Protein backbone atom coordinates (compact mmCIF):
# COMPACT_ATOMS: atom_id res chain seq x y z
CA UNK A 1 0.00 0.00 0.00
CA UNK A 2 1.35 3.42 -1.00
CA UNK A 3 1.47 5.44 2.21
CA UNK A 4 2.27 8.61 0.29
CA UNK A 5 -0.92 8.32 -1.72
CA UNK A 6 -2.92 7.85 1.45
CA UNK A 7 -1.41 11.05 2.78
CA UNK A 8 -2.30 12.87 -0.41
CA UNK A 9 -5.95 11.90 -0.69
CA UNK A 10 -6.93 10.93 2.85
CA UNK A 11 -9.31 13.00 4.96
CA UNK A 12 -7.49 13.61 8.24
CA UNK A 13 -9.21 14.47 11.52
CA UNK A 14 -7.52 17.54 13.00
CA UNK A 15 -8.33 20.76 14.79
CA UNK A 16 -9.87 23.45 12.57
CA UNK A 17 -7.64 26.33 11.47
CA UNK A 18 -8.03 29.99 12.34
CA UNK A 19 -9.87 30.79 9.09
CA UNK A 20 -13.67 31.12 9.15
CA UNK A 21 -15.19 27.72 8.50
CA UNK A 22 -17.76 26.78 5.89
CA UNK A 23 -20.15 24.03 6.96
CA UNK A 24 -20.44 21.15 4.53
CA UNK A 25 -23.78 20.76 2.69
CA UNK A 26 -26.49 19.00 4.68
CA UNK A 27 -27.18 16.53 1.84
CA UNK A 28 -30.92 17.03 1.50
CA UNK A 29 -32.82 13.91 0.58
CA UNK A 30 -30.47 11.49 2.32
CA UNK A 31 -32.89 11.18 5.21
CA UNK A 32 -32.74 11.94 8.90
CA UNK A 33 -31.49 9.40 11.34
CA UNK A 34 -34.35 7.19 12.56
CA UNK A 35 -34.89 7.15 16.27
CA UNK A 36 -32.70 4.53 17.97
CA UNK A 37 -30.74 3.59 14.85
CA UNK A 38 -28.25 4.65 12.20
CA UNK A 39 -29.30 6.75 9.21
CA UNK A 40 -29.82 5.38 5.74
CA UNK A 41 -26.56 7.11 4.81
CA UNK A 42 -24.69 4.58 6.92
CA UNK A 43 -26.06 1.66 4.90
CA UNK A 44 -23.27 -0.77 4.27
CA UNK A 45 -21.55 0.12 7.54
CA UNK A 46 -21.82 -2.59 10.15
CA UNK A 47 -23.88 -1.61 13.21
CA UNK A 48 -20.86 -2.54 15.32
CA UNK A 49 -18.92 0.27 13.61
CA UNK A 50 -21.65 2.80 14.42
CA UNK A 51 -21.72 1.57 18.02
CA UNK A 52 -17.93 1.78 18.34
CA UNK A 53 -17.86 5.28 16.83
CA UNK A 54 -20.59 6.36 19.22
CA UNK A 55 -18.73 4.92 22.19
CA UNK A 56 -15.24 6.22 21.43
CA UNK A 57 -16.18 9.70 20.17
CA UNK A 58 -18.91 10.22 22.82
CA UNK A 59 -21.66 10.57 20.20
CA UNK A 60 -25.22 9.35 20.02
CA UNK A 61 -25.88 6.74 17.35
CA UNK A 62 -27.69 9.42 15.32
CA UNK A 63 -24.68 11.74 15.57
CA UNK A 64 -22.36 8.91 14.62
CA UNK A 65 -24.47 8.09 11.56
CA UNK A 66 -24.58 11.77 10.55
CA UNK A 67 -20.82 12.01 10.89
CA UNK A 68 -20.36 8.98 8.64
CA UNK A 69 -22.60 10.66 6.05
CA UNK A 70 -20.59 13.88 6.20
CA UNK A 71 -17.28 12.05 5.96
CA UNK A 72 -18.42 10.09 2.94
CA UNK A 73 -19.44 13.27 1.12
CA UNK A 74 -16.19 14.97 2.15
CA UNK A 75 -14.15 12.09 0.73
CA UNK A 76 -15.88 12.50 -2.64
CA UNK A 77 -15.27 16.26 -2.56
CA UNK A 78 -11.57 15.75 -1.80
CA UNK A 79 -11.20 13.31 -4.70
CA UNK A 80 -12.61 15.91 -7.13
CA UNK A 81 -10.59 18.83 -5.76
CA UNK A 82 -7.36 16.88 -5.74
CA UNK A 83 -7.74 16.24 -9.46
CA UNK A 84 -8.80 19.80 -10.26
CA UNK A 85 -6.11 21.52 -8.19
CA UNK A 86 -3.25 19.28 -9.30
CA UNK A 87 0.11 20.56 -8.02
CA UNK A 88 -1.67 23.25 -6.01
CA UNK A 89 -3.52 20.72 -3.84
CA UNK A 90 -2.01 20.92 -0.37
CA UNK A 91 -4.00 18.24 1.46
CA UNK A 92 -7.28 18.23 3.37
CA UNK A 93 -8.64 17.51 6.82
CA UNK A 94 -11.88 17.59 8.77
CA UNK A 95 -12.55 19.74 11.79
CA UNK A 96 -12.60 18.06 15.17
CA UNK A 97 -16.38 17.58 15.09
CA UNK A 98 -16.27 16.30 11.52
CA UNK A 99 -18.59 18.98 10.15
CA UNK A 100 -16.15 21.14 8.15
CA UNK A 101 -13.74 20.24 5.37
CA UNK A 102 -10.53 22.25 5.11
CA UNK A 103 -8.53 22.16 1.86
CA UNK A 104 -5.02 23.60 1.55
CA UNK A 105 -4.17 25.39 -1.72
CA UNK A 106 -0.73 26.55 -2.85
CA UNK A 107 -2.25 29.06 -5.36
CA UNK A 108 -4.60 31.65 -3.76
CA UNK A 109 -6.35 32.05 -7.11
CA UNK A 110 -7.80 28.54 -6.68
CA UNK A 111 -9.52 29.38 -3.38
CA UNK A 112 -12.86 30.17 -5.02
CA UNK A 113 -12.98 26.67 -6.52
CA UNK A 114 -12.56 25.22 -3.05
CA UNK A 115 -15.36 27.41 -1.65
CA UNK A 116 -17.65 26.43 -4.50
CA UNK A 117 -17.20 22.80 -3.49
CA UNK A 118 -18.38 23.64 0.05
CA UNK A 119 -14.95 23.48 1.71
CA UNK A 120 -12.72 26.04 3.45
CA UNK A 121 -9.61 27.06 1.48
CA UNK A 122 -6.38 27.45 3.43
CA UNK A 123 -3.41 29.10 1.63
CA UNK A 124 -0.12 27.25 2.01
CA UNK A 125 3.40 27.40 0.57
CA UNK A 126 3.74 23.76 -0.51
CA UNK A 127 1.53 21.36 -2.35
CA UNK A 128 1.10 17.89 -0.88
CA UNK A 129 3.32 16.36 -3.56
CA UNK A 130 6.18 18.56 -2.36
CA UNK A 131 5.51 17.46 1.23
CA UNK A 132 5.51 13.84 0.14
CA UNK A 133 8.87 14.39 -1.55
CA UNK A 134 10.29 15.81 1.70
CA UNK A 135 9.04 12.80 3.62
CA UNK A 136 10.57 10.48 1.01
CA UNK A 137 13.95 12.10 1.70
CA UNK A 138 13.51 11.33 5.39
CA UNK A 139 12.44 7.78 4.58
CA UNK A 140 15.61 7.26 2.56
CA UNK A 141 17.69 8.50 5.49
CA UNK A 142 15.75 6.47 8.05
CA UNK A 143 18.73 4.29 8.90
CA UNK A 144 20.48 7.34 10.35
CA UNK A 145 17.71 8.05 12.88
CA UNK A 146 18.64 7.43 16.53
CA UNK A 147 16.32 5.71 19.03
CA UNK A 148 15.42 9.23 20.22
CA UNK A 149 13.49 9.69 16.97
CA UNK A 150 10.28 7.65 16.93
CA UNK A 151 8.93 8.58 13.50
CA UNK A 152 7.88 11.27 11.04
CA UNK A 153 4.79 12.09 9.01
CA UNK A 154 3.22 14.61 6.64
CA UNK A 155 1.05 17.10 8.55
CA UNK A 156 -1.13 18.87 5.99
CA UNK A 157 -2.73 21.09 8.63
CA UNK A 158 0.63 22.80 9.28
CA UNK A 159 1.93 22.33 5.71
CA UNK A 160 5.06 20.59 6.99
CA UNK A 161 6.63 17.24 7.73
CA UNK A 162 6.79 16.50 11.46
CA UNK A 163 9.65 14.58 13.06
CA UNK A 164 8.84 13.12 16.48
CA UNK A 165 11.64 13.11 19.06
CA UNK A 166 11.76 12.08 22.70
CA UNK A 167 11.24 15.05 25.08
CA UNK A 168 14.61 16.66 25.73
CA UNK A 169 16.13 15.06 22.64
CA UNK A 170 14.68 17.36 20.01
CA UNK A 171 18.22 18.11 18.84
CA UNK A 172 18.45 14.51 17.63
CA UNK A 173 15.39 15.13 15.47
CA UNK A 174 16.90 18.28 14.01
CA UNK A 175 20.19 16.51 13.28
CA UNK A 176 18.30 13.74 11.50
CA UNK A 177 16.36 16.23 9.36
CA UNK A 178 19.52 18.15 8.47
CA UNK A 179 21.39 14.96 7.56
CA UNK A 180 18.60 13.97 5.17
CA UNK A 181 19.10 17.17 3.16
CA UNK A 182 15.47 18.32 3.21
CA UNK A 183 14.71 22.00 2.47
CA UNK A 184 14.97 24.34 5.45
CA UNK A 185 11.58 25.16 6.93
CA UNK A 186 9.83 22.10 5.53
CA UNK A 187 10.30 20.03 8.70
CA UNK A 188 9.11 20.63 12.26
CA UNK A 189 10.47 18.69 15.23
CA UNK A 190 7.88 17.88 17.87
CA UNK A 191 8.52 16.36 21.30
CA UNK A 192 6.52 13.18 21.92
CA UNK A 193 7.01 10.48 24.54
CA UNK A 194 6.35 7.71 22.05
CA UNK A 195 8.19 4.43 21.55
CA UNK A 196 6.11 2.63 18.92
CA UNK A 197 6.63 -1.01 18.08
CA UNK A 198 4.77 -3.36 15.78
CA UNK A 199 2.10 -5.45 17.45
CA UNK A 200 1.00 -8.80 16.11
CA UNK A 201 -1.47 -11.24 17.61
CA UNK A 202 -0.72 -14.87 18.28
CA UNK A 203 -3.86 -16.85 17.39
CA UNK A 204 -4.52 -20.54 17.29
CA UNK A 205 -4.45 -21.98 13.77
CA UNK A 206 -2.32 -19.22 12.25
CA UNK A 207 0.67 -20.20 10.14
CA UNK A 208 4.24 -19.75 11.32
CA UNK A 209 7.56 -20.63 9.71
CA UNK A 210 10.52 -22.43 11.26
CA UNK A 211 14.01 -21.18 10.37
CA UNK A 212 12.41 -19.49 7.33
CA UNK A 213 11.74 -22.91 5.84
CA UNK A 214 9.09 -25.35 7.09
CA UNK A 215 5.57 -24.21 7.99
CA UNK A 216 3.36 -25.30 10.89
CA UNK A 217 0.33 -23.90 12.71
CA UNK A 218 -0.04 -22.25 16.11
CA UNK A 219 -1.79 -24.38 18.71
CA UNK A 220 -2.83 -22.23 21.69
CA UNK A 221 -1.52 -19.05 23.23
CA UNK A 222 0.18 -19.40 26.61
CA UNK A 223 1.69 -16.69 28.76
CA UNK A 224 4.82 -15.64 26.89
CA UNK A 225 4.23 -17.62 23.71
CA UNK A 226 2.32 -20.57 22.26
CA UNK A 227 2.28 -24.35 22.06
CA UNK A 228 2.46 -26.40 18.90
CA UNK A 229 3.65 -29.81 17.67
CA UNK A 230 7.05 -31.15 18.69
CA UNK A 231 7.92 -32.37 15.22
CA UNK A 232 7.71 -28.76 14.00
CA UNK A 233 10.94 -27.66 15.67
CA UNK A 234 13.69 -28.15 18.23
CA UNK A 235 14.88 -25.83 21.04
CA UNK A 236 16.75 -22.92 19.52
CA UNK A 237 14.89 -22.99 16.20
CA UNK A 238 13.67 -19.53 15.17
CA UNK A 239 10.12 -18.75 14.09
CA UNK A 240 8.55 -16.07 11.93
CA UNK A 241 4.86 -15.35 11.67
CA UNK A 242 2.64 -15.71 8.62
CA UNK A 243 3.72 -12.13 7.79
CA UNK A 244 7.39 -13.27 7.81
CA UNK A 245 8.15 -11.00 10.77
CA UNK A 246 10.51 -12.41 13.44
CA UNK A 247 8.30 -14.02 16.04
CA UNK A 248 10.08 -16.21 18.58
CA UNK A 249 12.18 -19.24 19.51
CA UNK A 250 11.43 -22.86 20.34
CA UNK A 251 12.29 -23.25 24.01
CA UNK A 252 11.10 -26.84 24.56
CA UNK A 253 10.16 -29.75 22.32
CA UNK A 254 9.41 -33.45 22.62
CA UNK A 255 9.18 -35.80 19.61
CA UNK A 256 8.95 -38.74 19.23
CA UNK A 257 7.52 -40.22 22.45
CA UNK A 258 5.31 -37.14 22.66
CA UNK A 259 4.51 -34.50 20.06
CA UNK A 260 4.52 -31.07 21.70
CA UNK A 261 6.65 -27.93 21.64
CA UNK A 262 6.72 -24.49 23.26
CA UNK A 263 7.61 -21.28 21.42
CA UNK A 264 8.51 -18.13 23.34
CA UNK A 265 7.56 -15.02 21.34
CA UNK A 266 9.31 -11.65 21.32
CA UNK A 267 7.79 -8.38 22.49
CA UNK A 268 6.25 -7.59 19.11
CA UNK A 269 3.76 -10.45 19.43
CA UNK A 270 0.83 -10.64 21.83
CA UNK A 271 -0.66 -14.07 22.67
CA UNK A 272 -4.45 -13.94 22.41
CA UNK A 273 -6.99 -16.39 23.77
CA UNK A 274 -8.64 -17.02 20.42
CA UNK A 275 -8.44 -19.37 17.45
CA UNK A 276 -8.62 -18.29 13.81
CA UNK A 277 -11.86 -19.60 12.29
CA UNK A 278 -10.57 -18.97 8.72
CA UNK A 279 -13.88 -17.31 7.92
CA UNK A 280 -12.83 -13.77 8.70
CA UNK A 281 -13.13 -14.07 12.47
CA UNK A 282 -11.97 -15.84 15.60
CA UNK A 283 -13.52 -18.10 18.22
CA UNK A 284 -12.76 -17.75 21.94
CA UNK A 285 -10.75 -20.12 24.10
CA UNK A 286 -12.21 -20.14 27.61
CA UNK A 287 -10.48 -23.10 29.24
CA UNK A 288 -9.11 -26.59 28.65
CA UNK A 289 -11.71 -28.98 30.12
CA UNK A 290 -11.14 -32.35 28.49
CA UNK A 291 -14.01 -33.53 26.25
CA UNK A 292 -15.30 -37.12 26.30
CA UNK A 293 -15.00 -39.79 23.62
CA UNK A 294 -17.82 -39.18 21.16
CA UNK A 295 -17.80 -35.42 21.71
CA UNK A 296 -17.63 -33.07 18.75
CA UNK A 297 -14.28 -31.43 18.09
CA UNK A 298 -13.01 -28.89 15.54
CA UNK A 299 -9.50 -28.34 14.28
CA UNK A 300 -7.98 -25.12 12.93
CA UNK A 301 -4.89 -25.17 10.72
CA UNK A 302 -3.15 -22.93 8.22
CA UNK A 303 -3.51 -25.33 5.26
CA UNK A 304 -7.13 -26.48 5.36
CA UNK A 305 -8.73 -24.01 7.76
CA UNK A 306 -11.37 -25.27 10.18
CA UNK A 307 -12.58 -28.88 10.02
CA UNK A 308 -14.80 -30.75 12.49
CA UNK A 309 -15.67 -34.28 13.53
CA UNK A 310 -15.80 -36.36 16.71
CA UNK A 311 -13.32 -37.80 19.21
CA UNK A 312 -13.01 -41.54 18.55
CA UNK A 313 -10.54 -42.80 21.17
CA UNK A 314 -7.96 -41.55 23.64
CA UNK A 315 -4.52 -42.79 24.69
CA UNK A 316 -3.72 -43.91 21.18
CA UNK A 317 -0.20 -44.82 20.07
CA UNK A 318 0.97 -43.95 16.57
CA UNK A 319 4.05 -45.51 15.01
CA UNK A 320 5.38 -42.70 12.82
CA UNK A 321 8.43 -43.30 10.57
CA UNK A 322 10.37 -41.05 12.97
CA UNK A 323 9.33 -43.08 16.02
CA UNK A 324 6.42 -43.99 18.26
CA UNK A 325 4.23 -41.35 19.90
CA UNK A 326 1.90 -42.36 22.73
CA UNK A 327 -0.98 -40.73 24.58
CA UNK A 328 -2.59 -39.18 21.49
CA UNK A 329 -6.30 -38.65 20.84
CA UNK A 330 -7.77 -40.12 17.65
CA UNK A 331 -10.46 -38.31 15.63
CA UNK A 332 -12.21 -38.64 12.27
CA UNK A 333 -11.28 -35.07 11.32
CA UNK A 334 -9.19 -34.54 8.19
CA UNK A 335 -5.90 -32.63 8.05
CA UNK A 336 -3.03 -31.99 5.64
CA UNK A 337 0.66 -30.97 5.83
CA UNK A 338 1.05 -27.49 7.33
CA UNK A 339 -1.89 -28.05 9.70
CA UNK A 340 0.55 -29.64 12.18
CA UNK A 341 0.52 -27.99 15.59
CA UNK A 342 -2.86 -26.34 15.02
CA UNK A 343 -5.58 -25.90 17.62
CA UNK A 344 -8.33 -28.37 18.55
CA UNK A 345 -11.46 -27.07 20.30
CA UNK A 346 -14.53 -28.72 21.73
CA UNK A 347 -16.93 -25.81 22.04
CA UNK A 348 -14.76 -23.13 23.66
CA UNK A 349 -12.46 -25.57 25.45
CA UNK A 350 -8.90 -26.22 24.22
CA UNK A 351 -8.25 -29.91 23.57
CA UNK A 352 -4.89 -30.32 21.87
CA UNK A 353 -2.50 -29.63 19.00
CA UNK A 354 -2.41 -31.50 15.69
CA UNK A 355 0.15 -34.30 15.56
CA UNK A 356 -0.43 -36.26 12.34
CA UNK A 357 -2.83 -38.52 10.54
CA UNK A 358 -3.84 -40.43 7.46
CA UNK A 359 -5.78 -39.25 4.41
CA UNK A 360 -6.59 -35.70 3.37
CA UNK A 361 -9.45 -33.23 3.26
CA UNK A 362 -10.56 -34.33 -0.19
CA UNK A 363 -11.17 -37.99 0.56
CA UNK A 364 -11.36 -37.69 4.36
CA UNK A 365 -9.10 -39.25 6.95
CA UNK A 366 -8.04 -39.79 10.53
CA UNK A 367 -6.09 -37.24 12.56
CA UNK A 368 -4.45 -37.43 15.99
CA UNK A 369 -3.82 -34.63 18.47
CA UNK A 370 -1.53 -34.24 21.47
CA UNK A 371 -3.71 -33.33 24.49
CA UNK A 372 -3.09 -29.73 25.52
CA UNK A 373 -3.43 -30.29 29.26
CA UNK A 374 -0.41 -32.59 29.17
CA UNK A 375 1.61 -29.85 27.45
CA UNK A 376 0.54 -27.25 30.02
CA UNK A 377 1.28 -29.55 32.97
CA UNK A 378 4.64 -30.79 31.68
CA UNK A 379 5.92 -27.27 31.05
CA UNK A 380 4.18 -25.39 33.87
CA UNK A 381 2.45 -23.15 31.33
CA UNK A 382 -0.58 -20.90 31.72
CA UNK A 383 -3.18 -20.96 28.97
CA UNK A 384 -4.27 -17.53 27.70
CA UNK A 385 -8.06 -17.36 27.43
CA UNK A 386 -10.45 -14.87 25.88
CA UNK A 387 -11.62 -13.73 29.29
CA UNK A 388 -8.28 -13.77 31.08
CA UNK A 389 -5.71 -16.35 32.09
CA UNK A 390 -6.57 -19.79 33.36
CA UNK A 391 -4.23 -21.65 35.69
CA UNK A 392 -2.30 -24.63 34.33
CA UNK A 393 -3.61 -28.07 35.26
CA UNK A 394 -2.54 -29.06 38.77
CA UNK A 395 -2.65 -32.78 38.00
CA UNK A 396 -1.34 -34.78 35.05
CA UNK A 397 -4.07 -35.46 32.44
CA UNK A 398 -5.86 -38.77 32.44
CA UNK A 399 -5.00 -41.37 29.85
CA UNK A 400 -1.31 -41.98 30.49
CA UNK A 401 1.55 -41.47 28.08
CA UNK A 402 5.29 -41.73 27.83
CA UNK A 403 7.47 -40.93 30.84
CA UNK A 404 8.17 -37.22 30.97
CA UNK A 405 11.66 -36.14 29.96
CA UNK A 406 13.60 -33.86 32.30
CA UNK A 407 11.71 -30.60 32.76
CA UNK A 408 12.68 -27.72 30.48
CA UNK A 409 12.08 -24.18 31.63
CA UNK A 410 9.17 -22.57 29.79
CA UNK A 411 8.51 -18.92 28.97
CA UNK A 412 8.06 -16.97 32.16
CA UNK A 413 9.74 -19.55 34.42
CA UNK A 414 13.15 -19.45 36.13
CA UNK A 415 15.62 -22.27 35.55
CA UNK A 416 14.14 -25.64 36.52
CA UNK A 417 14.44 -26.56 40.18
CA UNK A 418 15.63 -23.10 41.31
CA UNK A 419 13.90 -20.20 42.97
CA UNK A 420 14.43 -16.88 41.21
CA UNK A 421 17.22 -15.26 43.20
CA UNK A 422 17.25 -12.10 41.07
CA UNK A 423 14.62 -9.46 41.64
CA UNK A 424 14.13 -6.00 40.19
CA UNK A 425 11.64 -3.58 38.73
CA UNK A 426 11.75 -5.47 35.43
CA UNK A 427 12.29 -9.20 34.93
CA UNK A 428 12.80 -11.16 31.73
CA UNK A 429 13.46 -14.83 31.01
CA UNK A 430 14.87 -16.54 27.95
CA UNK A 431 16.84 -19.41 26.51
CA UNK A 432 20.51 -18.99 25.70
CA UNK A 433 23.27 -21.18 24.27
CA UNK A 434 26.98 -20.78 23.64
CA UNK A 435 27.62 -18.43 20.75
CA UNK A 436 24.20 -16.80 20.92
CA UNK A 437 23.10 -13.42 22.26
CA UNK A 438 19.81 -11.74 23.09
CA UNK A 439 18.89 -8.12 23.72
CA UNK A 440 16.61 -7.34 26.64
CA UNK A 441 13.98 -6.20 27.30
CA UNK A 442 12.24 -8.10 24.50
CA UNK A 443 14.84 -7.38 21.86
CA UNK A 444 14.48 -3.63 22.35
CA UNK A 445 15.93 -0.79 24.44
CA UNK A 446 14.77 1.44 27.29
CA UNK A 447 15.35 4.95 28.57
CA UNK A 448 16.83 5.71 31.97
CA UNK A 449 17.38 8.93 33.88
CA UNK A 450 20.78 9.75 35.32
CA UNK A 451 21.52 7.54 38.32
CA UNK A 452 22.41 4.00 39.24
CA UNK A 453 21.46 0.91 37.27
CA UNK A 454 21.55 -2.59 38.71
CA UNK A 455 21.10 -5.99 37.09
CA UNK A 456 21.20 -9.61 38.19
CA UNK A 457 21.34 -12.66 35.94
CA UNK A 458 20.97 -16.30 36.92
CA UNK A 459 21.64 -19.21 34.60
CA UNK A 460 21.39 -23.01 34.98
CA UNK A 461 24.24 -24.91 36.56
CA UNK A 462 27.00 -25.67 34.09
CA UNK A 463 26.21 -22.75 31.78
CA UNK A 464 28.40 -19.66 31.55
CA UNK A 465 26.43 -16.55 30.59
CA UNK A 466 27.40 -12.89 30.51
CA UNK A 467 25.18 -9.82 30.89
CA UNK A 468 26.26 -6.47 29.48
CA UNK A 469 24.69 -3.06 30.03
CA UNK A 470 25.01 -1.06 26.82
CA UNK A 471 24.35 2.63 26.10
CA UNK A 472 23.42 4.10 22.73
CA UNK A 473 26.06 6.66 21.73
CA UNK A 474 24.32 8.10 18.69
CA UNK A 475 25.68 5.58 16.21
CA UNK A 476 25.91 2.30 18.11
CA UNK A 477 25.46 0.59 21.48
CA UNK A 478 28.59 0.45 23.64
CA UNK A 479 29.09 -1.67 26.77
CA UNK A 480 29.35 0.35 29.98
CA UNK A 481 29.26 -2.51 32.52
CA UNK A 482 29.33 -6.31 32.42
CA UNK A 483 29.32 -9.42 34.59
CA UNK A 484 29.12 -13.18 34.10
CA UNK A 485 27.95 -16.25 35.99
CA UNK A 486 31.39 -17.78 36.53
CA UNK A 487 30.96 -17.20 40.27
CA UNK A 488 27.24 -17.94 40.44
CA UNK A 489 24.80 -15.08 40.03
CA UNK A 490 26.01 -12.34 37.71
CA UNK A 491 25.50 -8.91 39.27
CA UNK A 492 26.42 -5.52 37.90
CA UNK A 493 25.96 -1.93 39.10
CA UNK A 494 26.76 1.21 37.12
CA UNK A 495 26.31 4.93 37.60
CA UNK A 496 25.10 6.16 34.24
CA UNK A 497 23.95 9.40 32.61
CA UNK A 498 20.47 9.75 31.16
CA UNK A 499 20.12 7.98 27.87
CA UNK A 500 19.02 4.94 25.88
CA UNK A 501 20.17 1.55 27.18
CA UNK A 502 19.73 -2.14 26.64
CA UNK A 503 20.99 -5.36 28.26
CA UNK A 504 22.73 -7.92 26.09
CA UNK A 505 22.76 -11.52 27.34
CA UNK A 506 25.57 -13.58 25.79
CA UNK A 507 26.00 -17.35 25.97
CA UNK A 508 29.62 -18.32 26.57
CA UNK A 509 29.33 -22.02 27.41
CA UNK A 510 26.50 -24.52 27.86
CA UNK A 511 22.83 -23.78 27.32
CA UNK A 512 19.56 -23.37 29.18
CA UNK A 513 17.07 -20.89 30.60
CA UNK A 514 18.12 -17.66 32.29
CA UNK A 515 16.40 -14.99 34.36
CA UNK A 516 17.43 -11.35 34.10
CA UNK A 517 16.17 -8.74 36.56
CA UNK A 518 17.13 -5.08 36.41
CA UNK A 519 16.22 -1.70 37.85
CA UNK A 520 17.21 1.96 37.67
CA UNK A 521 17.63 3.76 40.98
TrEMBL record:
Domain Peptidase S1, residue spans: 226-376
Keyword Ribosomal protein: no
Biased composition (Low complexity): 403-420
Biological processes annotated in GO: proteolysis
Keyword Transferase found: no
GO terms, molecular function: serine-type endopeptidase activity
Pfam families referenced in this protein's UniProt entry, alphabetically: Pro_Al_protease, Trypsin
GO terms for cellular component: extracellular region
Region described as Disordered: spans on this chain: 339-358, 386-420
Peptidase S1A alpha-lytic prodomain domain: residues covered: 127-184
Signal peptide residues on this chain, from the entry's feature table: 1-28
The entry's keywords: Disulfide bond, Hydrolase, Protease, Serine protease, Signal, Zymogen
UniProt family annotation: Belongs to the peptidase S1 family.
Protein name (Swiss-Prot/TrEMBL): Streptogrisin C
Amino acid sequence: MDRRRITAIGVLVAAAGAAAAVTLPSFAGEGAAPRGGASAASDGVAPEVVDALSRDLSLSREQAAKRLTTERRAAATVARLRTELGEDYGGSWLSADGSQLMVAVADPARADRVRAAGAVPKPVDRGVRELDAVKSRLDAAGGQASPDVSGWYVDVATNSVVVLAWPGAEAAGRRFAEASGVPAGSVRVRAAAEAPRPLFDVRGGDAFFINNAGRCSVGFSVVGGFVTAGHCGQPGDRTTGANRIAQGTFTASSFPGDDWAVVEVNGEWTPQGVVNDFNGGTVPVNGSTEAAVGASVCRSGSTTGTRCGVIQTKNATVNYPEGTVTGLTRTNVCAEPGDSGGAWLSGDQAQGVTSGGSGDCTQGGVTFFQPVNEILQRNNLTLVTATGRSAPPSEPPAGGGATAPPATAAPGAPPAGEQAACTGQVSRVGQIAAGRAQNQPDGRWFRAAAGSQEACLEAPEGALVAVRLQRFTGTSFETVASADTSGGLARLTADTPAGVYRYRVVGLDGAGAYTLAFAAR
